[in-house]
Design brief:
Elements lengths: L1 E4 L4 H14 L4 E5 L7 H5 L3 E3 L5 H10 L4 E4 L5 H6 L1 H22 L2 E3 L2 E2 L23 H20 L3 E2 L1 E3 L1 E3 L12 H11 L2 E4 L7 E5 H13 L11 E2 L3 E3 L1 H9 L6 E4 L3 H9 L7 H7 L7 H15 L3
Parallel strand pairs: 1-2, 1-4, 2-3, 4-5, 5-7, 6-8, 8-12, 9-11, 10-14
Antiparallel strand pairs: 11-13
Helix pairs in contact: 1-8, 3-5, 5-6, 7-9
The protein binds (3R)-3-hydroxy-L-norvaline (VAH).
Length: 316
């Protein structure tokens, strides 16, 4: 059985439903540190547990109760909120991961946990960032992502825990809003375009960041979890990307569908500094070679789908 932590978050809420579709509702246990409005679908479509990942016993109890053999660990604080609450970010992101890995070691579970482009910093090569390169991030979130990658590789090498992960770029989706990220502008812009026909970007013109549509992100997680371990040279964590764009690019794409859409800028220095420290584009050839990574959505097809699905959701 699979346990998903952070199951009510931007990735977790969709991944839980996708995993239940594939493996059966009762075989996927959703967990979150608290209940959340609007997540009835996840909470009611299969087993749901309240788990605070900083409490190892709670994780162990749920793993035992449901005979879990795979943990998808998504519970974390993201980059921008992590700069507001660095201590909490360390506690949740690092002690949470440590507890998951310790339970996995004791109960013989496999572990999937994502890293991020945030695991790179200002001294990392920005164009076609290599799979193996300098990783000196300047955010607490980035520190926890690099430390997390190293800890997961350690648990694989030292204890044989089957750990795997991907470095996610910004993720764009219409089901659940992201919580406190730097790439969130690329989600909010679609909502605002439909509601106000205008958006004020907190990231400045010309700021390139890797991005991906949620369906491709879910496929990446499932493909890597199911990949033949003999083919894996890397484990924590694979560069993956689907597109790289700046605010003016996504605004222009939206304008093709909503001609009167206008965007202006009110740059947030904190999130701009974070975005400036990240790569402009990733080299994801290792993921393509080792487990067949192959995204389906680009900016144009994502925009068509996002606007269509959000119109239904906002009943526009
Ligand atoms: C964030 N969406 O902005 C997350 C992610 C690469 C970005 O880590 O913090």
């Amino acid at each position: 059985k699979i346990l998903v932590t952070g199951a009510l978050g931007q990735i977790g809420s969709e991944l839980t439903m996708e995993l239940r579709k594939i493996y059966g509702n009762d075989n996927v246990v959703a967990s979150s540190r608290r209940m959340k409005e609007g997540q009835e679908k996840v909470i009611e479509s299969g087993p749901f547990e309240i788990v605070e990942v900083t409490n190892a016993e709670q994780i162990a109890d749920v793993v035992k109760k449901h005979e879990v053999n795979t943990i998808v660990h998504l519970a974390a604080l993201l980059s921008a909120v992590g700069e507001q609450k660095p201590n909490q970010a360390w506690d949740i992101n690092m002690n949470g991961l440590y507890n998951v890995l310790e339970v996995a070691r004791e109960k013989n579970c496999a572990v999937f946990t994502p890293s991020s482009i945030a695991a790179f910093g200002p001294s990392t090569p920005k164009d076609k960032t290599p799979q193996d390169t300098i990783q000196r991030p300047g955010t607490m979130y980035g520190v926890t992502k690099v430390a997390g990658e190293l800890l997961c590789d350690y648990y694989y090498k030292k204890f044989g825990v089957d750990t795997r992960g991907v470095r996610f770029p910004g993720l764009i989706s219409y089901e659940t809003l992201p919580g406190g990220g730097t790439t969130d502008y690329a989600v909010h812009i679609y909502y605002e375009a439909l509601k106000q026909k205008k958006y004020t970007s907190f990231i400045q013109e010309g700021t390139l960041m890797d991005m991906m549509y949620m369906p491709d992100a879910l496929n990446a997680i499932i493909s890597l979890m199911e990949a033949n371990p003999d083919k894996l040279i890397h484990r924590n964590a694979f560069n993956i990307t689907a597109m790289s764009f700046a605010p003016e690019d996504i605004a222009a794409e939206i304008k093709k569908h909503i001609p009167e859409f206008e965007m202006d800028y009110d740059v947030d220095p904190v999130r701009q500094a974070i975005a400036d420290s990240w790569p402009d584009s990733l080299d994801d050839s290792a993921a393509r070679k080792e487990w067949g990574w192959d995204p389906k959505y680009d900016l144009s097809s994502m925009t068509i789908d996002m606007l269509e699905k959000l119109k239904e959701k906002l009943n526009k």
